[in-house]
Design a protein that fits this description.
3 helices, about 65% helix
Length: about 100
């Protein structure tokens, strides 16, 4: 098991999610400003579906890029091999037959 520094754990547990919230807010504003036509909710008339969907896509992309770029540790990113293992466990009842 690797020895993880306190600074790396702080980044992965606090700063990365906090930065993604900021990225989400900024992306929602920009996507809603440029592409927004359909109101999301009457309570807040400037929020749009286009801003919501655009911000979701930008945030997911940013999570992968920022997480893999700033974290040299394998526990912070999800590799293709891990995705294959997860898919096999979900979709195959008997692992030996997959």
């Amino acid at each position: 098991m690797r020895n993880h520094s306190y600074e790396t754990l702080t980044f992965c547990r606090f700063l990365l999610p906090a930065s993604l919230i900021v990225i989400n807010d900024i992306a929602a504003y920009i996507c809603g400003f440029y592409f927004g036509r359909t109101p999301l909710i009457k309570l807040s008339p400037k929020k749009t579906w286009e801003g919501f969907i655009g911000a979701s896509m930008v945030t997911m992309f940013s999570a992968v890029v920022v997480g893999s770029f700033f974290s040299p540790h394998s526990y912070a990113t999800l590799s293709i091999l891990n995705l294959k293992i997860i898919a096999q466990r979900i979709f195959c009842s008997d692992i030996s037959n997959c």
